[in-house]
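Peroxidase-related enzyme
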Amino acid sequence: MPRIEALKPEQVPADSKPTLDAFTKNIGFTPNMMATFAASPIAFNAWTALFSVMTKALDVKTRDSIGLAVSEVNGCNYCLTVHSYTAKHMAKLEADEIILARMGNATDPKRDAAVQFAKKVIETRGKVSDADFAAVRDAGYTDANIMEIVGLVAMYSLTNFINNVSDPEKDFPPVLPAGSISL
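Predicted structure tokens:
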């Protein structure tokens, strides 16, 4: 049972409506997370601005893999359903790649370094070791790319926290708990 109910279209604040309508048009439906988040035009529009800019960071496979790793660490089941769906349908990741990403890895060496680094950032609250930093840099990521990875971790954590607090009804296909997954 959601702690905060998703807003019905007539309940959406005027300052959230254009943003929510744009997402609905783009996705084809209104996800419960967004209909819940829209209750605060300030928070919703701030996240949307960050999301819009961060879609230019790195590549879609790396972004979705980071989203999966961060959501797994943060225990956000709603975001895991969303990121598993988008990783499959938009990033075109295979099922085993989605599982690996949830575990903080990838088969592609460069993407693996980014996902491992993102997982370390969230696990250590940003206090990564020199070795963690060197590994992502040695994989070919620039200082700008490293800031983008950290930005993605923060952005995904924000939605993880919003969803963990509000507990919206899941409207994407369910995923198995991490403990029951094996390769």
